[in-house]
Amino acid sequence: MKMSKKTKVVLYVILTLIAVYFLFPFVYMFFSTFKSETEAVAYPPSFLPDIWNWQNYVDAWNAQPFGTFLKNSVLVTVGSAVGSMVSAALVAYGFARFQFRGKNILFMLLLSTMMIPWDVTMIPQYMEFNAFGWLNTLKPLIVPSWFGSAYYIFLMRQFLMGVPKDFEEAARIDGANAFQIFYKIYVPIMKPSLILVGVLNMLAAWNDYLGPLIFLQERSKYTLALGLASFKGVYSQEIVPMLCITVIMIVPPILIFLFAQRYIIEGTGGAIK
Amino acid sequence: MKKFKWKTVTPYLFILPWIIGFLVFTLGPLIFSLCISFFDWPVVGERTFVGLGNYIEMFTSDKQVLKSLTISIKYAAIFVPLNICIALFLAMLISQPLKGIKVYRTIFYIPAVVSGVATSVIWSWVLNSDYGILNYLLSLIGIEGPNWLVDPAWAILAVVIVSAFGVGTMMLVFYTNIKGISAELYEAAALDGAGPVRQFFSITLPIITPTLLFNLITSIISSFQQVTLVMLLTGGGPMKSTYFYGLMTYNNAFRHHKLGYASANAWVMFIIILCLTALVFKSSSMWVFYENEVNSGTKKKKRRKK
Amino acid sequence: MKKRMKRLAAVGLVAAMTGSMLLGCGGGKDSGDDKTSDGKVKIRFATWDDASVLDDQQACVDKFNESQDKIEVVLEGWGSDFDTKMTASMGAGDAPDVMYMWDYPTYSESLEPLDEYINKEGEEYKNNFFEALWPYNSIDDKIYGVPVSVVTSCMYYNKDLFDQAGVAYPTDDWTWADVAKASEEIQSKLDSVNGFTLPIGTLPYTLEMYLWSNGTAFVDENGKLDGNINSDKSVEVFKTFQDMEKDGVLYASEESGQTEMLGGKTAMYVDGTWPIKQFEEEGLNYGIVQIPKFEGTEHSISVINTSGIAISKDSKHKEEAWEFLKYWTGEEMNKHRIETELPALKSVVESEALREDPNCAPFYTALDNCAGYTPSSFIAEGWTEVDADIQLAFESIINPSSLADPKEALDEVVASHE
């Protein structure tokens, strides 16, 4: 598709305006990470720091055992994302491609699990994980993903519903069974949406705060998000180190996103014709 | 005989992980919370059975329930359509074949990457009526900014503005779907003389209706469950103008320590969301076009030609 | 068929393997264990402090562990969401053995009464703590916690701003009228500086000290609101603040006041002892005096922000927990924490000459003045909901976009609860 020069200019202007709007608070935050606590809250607010104090980052990182937190975060993020991808693909395929008894009821049940707020199921869940002996381990943050979460299953299912059935008909004639069809035909087609599930789940797990807060106890088990929140106490808070860690924490998801983009686009060829 | 049996079992095998997960991780806590909604259940101390007492209290003596419900509905009514439109618009923008679009794509995604705690800290600075950089910038161009987080009339708008920054996830879902549309479809349409607007409405929009449904439902759910943002940004204030239903539930559980009552709150909200979702689903057969309807009996006439 | 079975078996196997691998990872011992691997008694200890002191707390815990051959204390830093986490663990019956505590009215039923333990230590032990602290750690005359530190409130002022405006520094005798006058003078000389800042989010718990200072309280000793919170004296308190705001000499802030003070945006505000460390680190030129008093009263009265530690009733190792509690509230630890917290022990205040330290003395004076007052939350039943309504009433009185009539707003609180 060719675009006229005028269209292009208009698009760039719109894109840039939105980018400025989206970036502004974070650029402001980024610059604030170099300021002293006093300068960060001064008025009129200064945009650029007086002195670029890179030491703030070193101090923030060393203020807590962030190396350990990072390790835990990576474990949780990767562990749950892989689990979600596998389980969402399987379950969504089951819901999207088959007709079976009780399907609608089960699907509504699946959706309804998203609708109960966590605050009331949290305490029974705590008791359950306590009974399993899972408290103060990373298991409550990883294992449930392997059994599918409604959000990602629903998302996958919507993508699968958009794939014409003609694909599998040919394979079925060849005598392939349901799992072969799933594995050989659908998994490749689902790649972009699977990657999307992976990206979204990684981000959610990376930033998850309440789960780790409730289920972890000792600092050796903390994740980055929990360490970040520890800069806030009941009676006090340190803003600058908090912002430094925030900036550091943004980097990995952005890298993953940059990396994943390619696969989301690549998938085009195999998808809907 | 055996073969037939396998065929009936196969779908269940696929959804088995979720069924196990549901039985092990979800069902127990769900039943537990339903049960305690019939109790007066403080965090510590005596627990007494009150039957429907909690539910009755919600709709008779507790005036906050309806107020908070209204606020949440108001928020959802603004948030859901607004965010879906923004997300779709952005997704269209970042799908354009332009140079450097990758950079913009990443920038649009950044706000969704920042954790809730940091987002609220930054925004409470930015929006601070006296010292905030937003009103400072506005003052430079001669506008006296409102007291964003102090004036009840503006606070809910402030929450909407901030939550719009989390649009990246929804945008990405749309984007993945749009990227999956074959270029041939557009080429064919272009040959027929369809402009970009018509292409959007006749090709893009119908194809992405499944993800539109997804985004619609998940954003309805999340808007009713919005807690973290308001808790950190406004604390429900000023003067309870942003005291969302979800925050009320949270406070009943964690501030007033009435777990039974909070569970009743949650179940009422559950019923409301469930009805809304069911409604959306019912209507979806009229506007969501699945490339393949599994129920061959209800095949749509509307199936697109290829 | 066979092939199909094989495929299925393979899928199943892979799933089972990944599952068990995950279950295996994460590892570590079960948290349910009350013994560590080397057979010591494990004591879980939860604190609410932010990261800046956690390392130091860990070092103190380590030191205790080294001195013990039968007890190992494990520190859990719960940070700002202490209350959420406490609700979850208490609700699930999995409270830590030892924990920081302020919300005794809610949790006392799950806490171990400590009177016996304290009595065993002798009169002298108990008397070494400032008397005013005990009521804040007791419910119905039973002690549930031992004070860790003293947190009273005083008024902070920015010396530089006072100097620039040529206004004399505040003194302990200042009334609110003096504050208003100074505030006006400062604001007339300095741009974009507020004279006095009062956070809109001031909690009722803190607000009550202004009522005490004016000779009233939210409730009487029977927990009755009517005639107390809406008494003339109480209304006068709220009206004083509102009038100051209307006159432009009190700034109602959406922040806590601490950031405004640090950023040089306010000349005066009231706070506890927490900001001192930050003010010192950032080199702020500040002074501390008593909270301003009301006309015709002798002195103001501060509230104490309880900071105690308690033992869970369900703890399996109460003796060991008490051992640690004693260590944590003992002289050595009180001295160790001097940089960040004011000692709760008379002997330490004396030996360290804290009454001569300008950063500490005002808070001990406030402590002397406030003996005998108990917050309404410790007296009335089901206080949290009244508390939420008082907060709303205060907000509506002080929020510049509403400025509700104090008498009406307070009457409404009474009406909806009695």
From TrEMBL, chain A:
Pinpoint the ABC transmembrane type-1 domain residues: 70-260
Kindly state which keywords UniProt assigns to this record, in alphabetical order: Cell membrane, Membrane, Transmembrane, Transmembrane helix, Transport
**Superkingdom to which the source organism belongs:** Bacteria
PROSITE patterns assigned to the protein according to its UniProt record, in alphabetical order: ABC_TM1 (PS50928)
Q: Which residues form a coiled coil?
A: none
Pfam families found in the cross-reference section: BPD_transp_1
**What stretches pass through the bilayer?**
9-31, 74-93, 105-123, 143-160, 181-206, 239-260
Is the Plastid keyword given for this protein?
Answer: no
Where located? Answer: Cell membrane
Where is it mostly found?
A: membrane
Q: Does the keyword Metal-binding apply?
A: no
According to its record, how does it sit in the membrane?
Multi-pass membrane protein
- Annotated signal sequence range: none
What family does this chain come from, according to its entry?
Belongs to the binding-protein-dependent transport system permease family.
Please identify the protein, giving its name as recorded. Answer: Carbohydrate ABC transporter permease
UniProtKB/TrEMBL annotation, chain B:
Query: Which UniProt key words apply to this protein?
Result: Cell membrane, Membrane, Transmembrane, Transmembrane helix, Transport
Please give, as recorded in its UniProt entry, the membrane topology of this protein: Multi-pass membrane protein
List where in the cell it is found.
Answer: Cell membrane
Transmembrane regions:
12-39, 75-94, 106-126, 153-175, 200-221, 227-247, 259-281
Stored Pfam families: BPD_transp_1
Under the heading PROSITE patterns, the entry gives: ABC_TM1
Q: Which InterPro entries match?
A: ABC_transporter_permease (IPR051393), MetI-like (IPR000515), MetI-like_sf (IPR035906)
Q: Where is the ABC transmembrane type-1 domain?
A: 69-280
Concerning its family, UniProt says: Belongs to the binding-protein-dependent transport system permease family.
Q: What is this protein called?
A: Sugar ABC transporter permease
> What is the scientific name of the source organism?
Sellimonas caecigallum
TrEMBL record, chain C:
Known InterPro entries for this protein? Bact_solute-bd_prot1 (IPR050490), SBP (IPR006059)
For the keyword Signal, the answer is: yes
Give the record's keywords alphabetically: Signal
Membrane-spanning segments: none
Q: Write the signal peptide boundaries.
A: 1-23
Q: Give the protein name, as stated in the record.
A: Sugar ABC transporter substrate-binding protein
* Organism from which the protein derives: Sellimonas caecigallum
